Amino acid sequence: MPESAAEAAGESIEYERTDVSVLVVGAGAAGARAAIELTERGVDDVLVLGKRGHGDAHTTWARGGINGALGTHDPEDSPAIHAADTLNEGHLINDPALVETVTEQMPARLRELDEWGMDYSRTDDGAIDQRYFGAQSFRRTAFAGDHTGESLLDTLVDRAQSLSIPYRENVMITKLVADGDAVYGAVGFDMDTGTFQLFNAGTVVLAAGGHAAIYNRHTSRDDENNGDGAALAYDAGATLMDMGFIQFHPTGMAVDETDPEWEPWSGRLVTEAVRGEGGRLFNTEGERFMRRYSPDQMELDARDVVARSIAEEVAAGRGTEHGGVYLDISHRDADFIRERLPRMYERFQELGVDMAREPVEVAPTSHYGMGGVAVDETGETDVDGLFAIGETMAGVHGANRLGGNSLAETVAFGVVAGETVADRVDGPGAIPADLLDTLVDPHLDDLASTANRDGDEDVEAALAALRDTMWEHAGILRDEESLRAGLDALEELRERASDLDVGPVTSESFEFAVDLGFSLTAAEAVLRGALEREESRGAHYRTDYPETDEAWRRNVTIERADIGGMALSTEPVDEPSAAVQAALDEGHELDYHQLE
């Protein structure tokens, strides 16, 4: 029930207090799977928080598939080869232990989802079908048409509801209650009522997504993936890792942004499944240009390779008027396209384009942050009791993510973190009184003073300026001068952020003001991480250091400095297990031409 801060911390701002053993922040696939694991292991004091309505999470936008070495079509596949592909795609700076956890878990996780009713696409004999995805040696990407993330989340939500797992929607967490050594809960607000919230929790599981939307062309919704998870953890004393690695998906929608019908679709994902089912890329001269850049793997080479190839075609004047190239799958039968790519087909049909008869325009778009919060083999951060899973965590993807591994990571580490927390859970604990005075109450004051602020700066304009800054200064091609200019531009944006025009707590402008704070932290970490790494590796391409340097086979970490600001350092990468090393040595590789 409401409790005044006068009673708890000597102030007058009121909040609602909730005591819970495990607080899960984020209601996408990672958060849902962790809550299911906790509940099935007997933890009956779990609460899941979502910023949106029940079942509405960014997971639903992951379309192409979810990886696991089932061997439906290619029985020679194995978790070790899956791990080798993941490490190769990550340019060998992934955490091998985290990678192997995912690849070893996934066959069982895929079958479990099948038992729970997931709407997989099937082979003629009823097995879970699997398709090719870029840079994978075998067909290991299970899928549900081109709506895999939606089907996955529906399955997990149904399972969670069958277990009666408590869930609160439209609650946004703005700060973790932590002293740098341990976490004790979280503070936020109810987005419907405007009521401030204090959650006293023995363990916090952050499953709050990534930070791809800090770029102006991105595949996320504008109100998602703004860096919440990384910024919350960093503020609480956790370490960030490899934030400079941003995956630019090769195929976002390239549109006329002056056309109100098309503008909302700028950068939105055209799933890799289109290329996995045989889609081909052409420049405006009609050339299938991937023959020049990657004659063996063609359109299904690694995402960083294909994205840079498209960028080079555009820079050379062989791009479309909207800054992209053409993706064509019209050589496939129309019924095949409608069956295998139903959402893509319907989307373009509604916009007046028939994928079965004509190509679509695509261009690289910010898609995924490979970096995030540094964690151990269970998903726990270096702040005791604070876990980070899903896109919030770092380590699985290295310098470039293998397509189909994002959904795999969510369910695999949802299980692993859930197992670990269930073995340790010991009630809600208690927030130390001094943190109520020194952290909770000042933060509530800050939130209250942000609401109804009559400033000169428009919140959405400030967010747009940040996204423009990141695209210009930390995009597909980077160099020292541009990265430093980006940091200078961020400082100017911080000044603007101190004079925002903000509505009440229930307003969109208040939510976006909070998002802006998270995005500024994430953007600075990306810029500083990219500036620190003086080489090119995977999705990180420095034009002033164009070669990969073996001496930089290290992870870049970021901690809060004692005197303020970000303190960067590097750590060596561990070696893989003998089985995975053997798979690496065997040199498995996709032969694209078997699709022709």
SSE-based structural type: alpha+beta
Measured distance between first and last alpha carbons: 64 Å
CA gyration radius, whole angstroms: 23 Å
Q: Could you say what the CATH architecture of one domain is? A: Up-down Bundle
Provide a descriptive summary of the structure in words.
The chain has 596 residues and is an alpha+beta fold. Among the domains are: 248-365, Flavocytochrome C3, Chain A, domain 1; 433-572, Up-down Bundle (Methane Monooxygenase Hydroxylase, Chain G, domain 1), CATH 1.20.58.100. It contains 17 helices and 21 strands. The chain has helices at 5-8, 29-40, 79-89, 96-115, 148-162, 228-235, 273-276, 290-293, 303-315, 334-340, 342-350, 405-424, 433-450, 459-473, 480-497, 508-532, 578-586, and strands spanning 2-4, 14-25, 46-49, 66-67, 130-131, 141-142, 167-168, 171-178, 183-190, 196-206, 240-241, 246-253, 280-282, 325-328, 360-369, 372-373, 386-388, 457-458, 500-501, 554-560, 566-572. The strands form 5 sheets. Strands 1, 2, 3, 7, 8, 9, 10 and 17 form an 8-stranded mixed sheet that branches. A 4-stranded antiparallel sheet has the order 16-11-20-21, covered by helices on one side. Helix 3 (79-89) crosses helix 4 and helix 15 (480-497) runs antiparallel to helix 16. The protein starts with a strand and ends in a 10-residue tail after the last helix.
